[in-house]
Amino acid sequence: MHRNNIIAEIESYISPYPHEMEMKKRMISFIRNHNQCFDRELSIGHITGSAWIQNTNRDSVLLMHHRKLDKWLQLGGHADGNSNIKSVALKEAQEESGLLKLDFSSNAIFDLDIHLIPARSNEPEHFHYDIRYHLFADDSIPIIKNHESFDLEWIPLNQVQKYTAEESILRMVEKSQSQ
Questions:
Q1: What is d(CA 161, CA 155) in angstroms, rounded to the nearest whole number?
Q2: pLDDT given for residue 123 in this prediction
Q3: For residue 10, which of 127, 126, 177, 133 has the smallest C-alpha distance?
């Protein structure tokens, strides 16, 4: 796996949130110390890619009610060996929303988060080292949820806190509102 590109991308990322900058250091260390960091078979954790998708008016975000975690979250998933996390985020967003036309707001990382995934059936508790990108989509195009979600919905930014209290989601709402 080629890790230098994603390490350089993460190293250049700056956030005004001190907790996020601590996660940045942990993420870089994790990638440097685990050759298989992009593989979900690495049982202690792995890199994931996510998409924070806003409508073109920038007043709503597309969130999914995640089936396994029973939480409202941004779209995204496992890298499955792919070290190009930006392409992972795009692929996951397309698969989980049915939206084929998605535009990146920039090439830069939008958010970083490390979160614990609880143990279930044959998977031990592990961490997702999530790299998130900001995308835009036309909210007039029908969305199609897949088997990974209970629901998929465009949620006004000022209503997201009614769906989730997840610190990282609310942080991305703040970032969206300040742009």
A1: 10
A2: 87
A3: 133
Question: What does the block give as tokens for 11?
Answer: 């190293």
Residue 127, classed as helix, strand or coil, is: strand
Per-residue pLDDT at 121: 86
Per residue in 69-108, pLDDT (tens digit) is 899 999 999 999 999 999 999 999 999 999 999 999 999 9
106, burial (CB in 10 Å: exposed 0-12, middle 13-18, buried 19+): exposed
d(CA 45, CA 38): 9
The H helix count followed by the E strand count for the chain is 4, 8
User: CB neighbours (10 Å) of residue 61?
Assistant: 23
Average pLDDT on 13-18 reads 96
- What amino acid occupies position 132? R
**How far is Cα 86 from Cα 6, in angstroms, rounded to an integer?**
9
Nearest CA among 172, 51, 150 for reference residue 104:
51
Model-level pTM? 0.96
**What are the chain's domains?**
4-177 (3.90.79.10)
**Residue 152 burial (CB count, 10 A):** 19
Token pair in block for residue 12: 């250049």
